[in-house]
Amino acid sequence: MVKEPKTVVNLENNIISLKHELNMAFKKLLPQLKEALERIGITSPTKFQKEVLPKIKGGANLFGIAPEGAGKTAAIIIGTLQKLECSAFEEAPRALIFVKDKAAALELEEEFKRIAYRMDLRIYSVYEELHIETQRSEIFAGTDIVIATPKRLNKLFYLNGINLGKLKMLIVDEADFLANAKAFSDLARIPESLDRCQYLIFSAKTHKRIERMRELFMANAQIIEHK
C-alpha cells in the first residue's frame, strides 16, 4: 500500500487548524448574534473580520483598510450589534454610521435588518431625498442605529434633529467617498460635539482625508490593513 505523503497530511492539519481558529472567533459573539449569523449561512469570519472584531469589541478606535470582498461592511454590522448587545435602549441613537449616498444607506439598513430582524434594535437611515421633519420625528421616536449621509446628518444635527448625547460608536463605511471635500467637511464637524465615542473608519484604500481624520480626532487609532 502506498502511503500518502506527509506534506498532504500536514496541509490537511493546517486547514483544520485554520478553520478551528476562525470558528473560535465567532464563539465569543453573543448567542443571539451567532444564531442570527448561522441562520443566513455565516459560520466563520473572514481573515479581516477575525482581526478587527476583537478590537471593535474591546473599544479601540480603528482604521480598517482592505479591498472589496474582505468583509468590511459585515464587520461593521457584527461589531455594532455585539457592542449594542443586540437590544434596544432608551430613545437616543448609540451608533451612527456614515455612508456615501441614499443607495448605500438603504442597502446597509437592509443588511442590518436581515441579520437583526429577531432583535428589537431600531435601525433607521437618513438622506437628502426624504423630508427632514419626517426623519427628525422618526429619530426622536426612538432609534438605536442611524445610517446617514454626511450632508443630511449635519443638517439634522444643527437643527437639533438628533440627540448624540448617548452615542457610543461613530463609523464610516467605505470611506473612499470622503475624498470629496464637502462630504469630509460635513462629517468632520460631528466629533467636535461628542464626549466619549469609539471611531471606526473602513475603506478600500487610504487617502489624505483619512489621514486628516487621524489628526483631528483619531490620534491613537489602530490601523489594520489587508491587501
UniProtKB/TrEMBL annotation:
<keyword id="KW-0378">Hydrolase</keyword>
<keyword id="KW-0067">ATP-binding</keyword>
<dbReference type="InterPro" id="IPR050079">
    <property type="entry name" value="DEAD_box_RNA_helicase"/>
</dbReference>
<dbReference type="InterPro" id="IPR014001">
    <property type="entry name" value="Helicase_ATP-bd"/>
</dbReference>
<dbReference type="GO" id="GO:0016787">
    <property type="term" value="F:hydrolase activity"/>
</dbReference>
<keyword id="KW-0547">Nucleotide-binding</keyword>
<protein>
    <recommendedName>
        <fullName>Helicase ATP-binding domain-containing protein</fullName>
    </recommendedName>
</protein>
<dbReference type="GO" id="GO:0005524">
    <property type="term" value="F:ATP binding"/>
</dbReference>
<dbReference type="InterPro" id="IPR011545">
    <property type="entry name" value="DEAD/DEAH_box_helicase_dom"/>
</dbReference>
<dbReference type="Pfam" id="PF00270">
    <property type="entry name" value="DEAD"/>
</dbReference>
<dbReference type="InterPro" id="IPR027417">
    <property type="entry name" value="P-loop_NTPase"/>
</dbReference>
<dbReference type="GO" id="GO:0003724">
    <property type="term" value="F:RNA helicase activity"/>
</dbReference>
<keyword id="KW-0347">Helicase</keyword>
<feature type="domain" description="Helicase ATP-binding">
    <location>
        <begin position="53"/>
        <end position="224"/>
    </location>
</feature>
<dbReference type="GO" id="GO:0003676">
    <property type="term" value="F:nucleic acid binding"/>
</dbReference>
<dbReference type="GO" id="GO:0005829">
    <property type="term" value="C:cytosol"/>
</dbReference>
